């Protein structure tokens, strides 16, 4: 069984620390849910122009990207997250539905843009799975 950790639990760790501690603590993978002060990793320069370096460093540390987690609220963020997951070889994309925090009276059947058929198809084409809303 492989085991991974999420960066949500280590918001102050830079990439070198993530790699070092991930290896030191015996993890196999990392689920990126934020990086340093940026919650949406798709807007961080490390994950836009530095993706090759991220993959190399993680690979050197023996870590996989087990997933990219996001609070996808708009379609543009969905597209960036799906593209990044594909570039990093992430098997999964987890989506956190934050609308329940704003409105506890959500109606059943409300369609979230992140769960759209188009986004699921795009995730599949990138080699990732778009997991259900959490």
Enumerate the spans where pLDDT stays under 50 for 5 or more consecutive residues: 100-114
Predict the CATH topology: TIM Barrel
Overall form = globular
| Count of individual helical segments | 6
Q: How many β-strands, per DSSP?
A: 5
**Sequence of strands across the biggest β-sheet:** 1-2-3-4-5
Arithmetic mean pLDDT: 78
Beta fraction of the residues? 15-25%
Instruction: Give the tally of structural domains.
Output: 1
Helix and strand pattern? EHEHHEHEHHE
Major beta-sheet overview: 5 strands, parallel
Q: Assign the CATH class.
A: Alpha Beta
How far is the first residue's CA from the last residue's CA? 23 Å
Helix amount: 25-40%
CATH architecture: Alpha-Beta Barrel
Description:
The chain has 134 residues and is of the alpha/beta class. The protein has one domain: TIM Barrel, CATH 3.20.20.150. It has six helices and five strands. It has helices at residues 15-24, 45-48, 51-60, 75-88, 99-102, 117-126, and strands spanning 4-6, 29-32, 64-70, 92-95, 129-133. It has a five-stranded parallel β-sheet with strand order 1-2-3-4-5. Helix 4 links the parallel strand 3 and strand 4. Helix 4 (75-88) packs parallel to helix 6 (117-126). It is globular and about 40 Å long. The two termini are 23 Å apart. The model is unreliable at 100-114 (pLDDT under 50).
């Amino acid at each position: 069984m492989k085991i991974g950790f999420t960066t949500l639990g280590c918001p102050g760790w830079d990439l070198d620390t993530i790699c070092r501690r991930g290896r030191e603590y015996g993890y196999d993978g990392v689920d990126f849910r934020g990086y340093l002060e940026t919650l949406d990793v798709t807007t961080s320069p490390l994950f836009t122009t530095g993706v090759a370096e991220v993959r190399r460093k993680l690979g050197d540390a023996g870590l996989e990207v087990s997933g990219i987690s996001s609070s996808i609220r708009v379609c543009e963020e969905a597209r960036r997250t799906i593209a990044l997951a594909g570039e990093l070889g992430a098997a999964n994309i987890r989506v956190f539905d934050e609308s329940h925090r704003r409105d506890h009276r959500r109606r059943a059947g409300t369609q979230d843009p992140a769960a759209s058929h188009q986004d699921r198809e795009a995730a599949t084409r990138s080699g990732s799975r778009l997991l259900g809303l959490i």
